[in-house]
Model the fold of this input.
Amino acid sequence: GENVEQHPSTLSVQEGDSAVIKCTYSDSASNYFPWYKQELGKRPQLIIDIRSNVGEKKDQRIAVTLNKTAKHFSLHITETQPEDSAVYFCAACYSGGGADGLTFGKGTHLIIQP
Amino acid sequence: GAGVSQTPSNKVTEKGKYVELRCDPISGHTALYWYRQSLGQGPEFLIYFQGTGAADDSGLPNDRFFAVRPEGSVSTLKIQRTERGDSAVYLCASSLAGLTLISGELFFGEGSRLTVL
Done:
């Protein structure tokens, strides 16, 4: 099955600086890579996703890059703000053929220092 | 409803008891998923329904866990002979038609926190 590794487990950055979180996956058939933000005691919420037919996707201050050859993908947050503080999870799956279960990384606790 | 609704929000039970957790997905969503999240971990996939049928139950840890979705909307996760290791937040999510669609997205509920004493 799929295995997703996520680094770092904790990331502390100054407000206004950039944050980068990296993930690797094991199953070369995986074709869907979402990122979720989870605040304490709340539900995970999708912030951005990428499919294997593109290498990069951007949405305002958030961007995701995918390298299928190396089997890794990264989340980039620019101009960080206090409300970006949360736990971020990457995930991967092969979507299609009846299987749709995401495999999640262990999460990165992002702390934005004022 | 406006979002995915899960009940109960909290459940405390004793080891060996039977529990049911309910999920009401977003209206019109054919795909429904159950995940389990332990403290400090990412969600762990349990089962995926497409309509009334379980399309993928490969994540269910053992035969004490079972889930149904008889009419293709509300789903119930059933845990028999609960063990302390079953303590976790059980998250339900729904999607319009699964992740295959370009616009496919999972919408999670707030979860049911299960504590087995």
Remarks:
- The longest strand of chain A covers residues 19-25.
- Chain A has no helices and eleven strands.
